[in-house]
Amino acid sequence: MNWYAIKAIYLSELHRSWRTPLQSIASPVLSTSLYFIVFGSAIGSAMTEIGGVSYGAFIIPGLIMLMILTESTSNASFGIYMPKWSGAIYEVLSAPVSAFEIVVGYVGAAATKSIILAMLILLTAKLFVDYSILHPLWMLLFLVLTCITFSMLGFILGVVADGFEKLQVIPLMVVTPLAFLGGTFYSISMLPEFWQKVTLFNPVVYLVSGFRWSFYGTADVSMTLSLVMISTFLIMFMVFIWWIFKTGYKVKV
Amino acid sequence: MENHIIDVRNLSKKYPSGFHALKQVNLQIKRGEIFALLGPNGAGKTTLISIICGLVNVDEGQVVVGGFDVVKQYRQARKQIGLVPQELAIDVFAFVWNTMVFSRGVFGKPRDDAYLEEILKALSLWDKRHAKIQFLSGGMKRRVLIAKALAHEPEVLFLDEPTAGVDVELRRDMWRLVEKLRQRGTTIILTTHYIEEAEEIADRIGIINHGEILLVENKQDLMKKLGRKQLILQLQHPITQLPDELNGFVLQLGENGKTLTYDYVDNQPTNHVTEVLAAIHRSGIELSDVQTKQSTLEQIFVSLVEDSK
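^ inputs. structure came back:
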């Protein structure tokens, strides 16, 4: 294992984020805080509790999920797309590193950034809403798995994309709508029965539900199912990345 | 075999577009030499380098670097290679020092600030170590690329068109560094359009065209074997036609009637230089000056590439 290479890629990717602190850190924390203020403190005070949890507290896990899904995807996709675009990727591809080490470096850094952001948002939320975490270790597990999984998705998008616009298509046109409709702001039991069934096809429902369960012990779907789903996505993306490096798809000719 | 740091055997590459970039290429690079690979655009130089460095997949054949197969033992093989690409392919938002640390690390070497400092100083980049690459000039960016390629102390350094578009000062610095690296035992393989550079610094020359190696030759031997010479005689008094004594020789009379030029092959016993001079002496022509001119590597290169068409 080339640990020096993993460390080099990982640290260089983290440096990249610190180079733009406003965009990388302040912006997602600020925009999520605005949700807390508007939906949690302002509108939330006029809403009834959901499953015994105040509305302001209810949306915290969903908002964190919304933020880490989009941030992990876009950050990891930029991380690999930029060197591809500038041509600087030649260095990593000609280095004595395996595909696995490359992925650990890039995905690890993107996931780390998302985890840090999630923690910052959790702390910020304390300023606006009173909440508690019932199963902190499970919360951490869901958080880490989701960050890694969606950073992998971002990595795949970065490899596949052949333009800056395409980089944004999946995070903006797919991930964000799915997150909004995946129970970020509501419990799916509040939907009409037909839409409750339809919404189960939305993979984000399982992520939000599992994550919310780790906070308050209540969930739309069972925690085990959530865990199975997130693990399935993780494995799916891993296999796809393995195939990319095996065939050289969009990486080598 | 062990004297060859790079051994390319029957290497072929066809791109998905159908372009046959390399056709059964065989090439051996000696340890410690400076090898210049010359060829027109699209000849296969960059494909060959890219395969050796692991950037392009091998279709057929084998490449061994320092005794390690570049596919099966890619880690050991790639550790020995440093590559300076043709394009200014670099993260322009990074800082010089950080990018150097990254390059060394990604090639699996522990951090060594003293060594990185030495490289940056050798390339006159030390003062720019805290600069963002974005704000460096094109020449400076190329220096950074060279520094990055050297950051992990490679045994073999590939310079793919390193002097394209760089100023005289950088070129001089670069060749000084190349000389220093050669003294340390680093093998250097360069492709260049500036054939006079190859002529000046290379030990051996390889010429590639249409994906085939046309020849690999020691530079001196190449110049001797294929180099042509011209004997230029300046006459004290102009003449209008060649005297009878010179009839048996192919001599060209200059337009002003004051120069005679004789083409011959260098180092050939039958080049008749002595006879030409004796005939001139017999004809009573008085000379004011005698010059010889060696054909350049560029002329040799052009004639070989033309022949291969």
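The radius of gyration of chain A is 19 Å. The CA atoms of residues 49 and 116 of chain A lie 29 Å apart.
thumbs up if we can close this ticket
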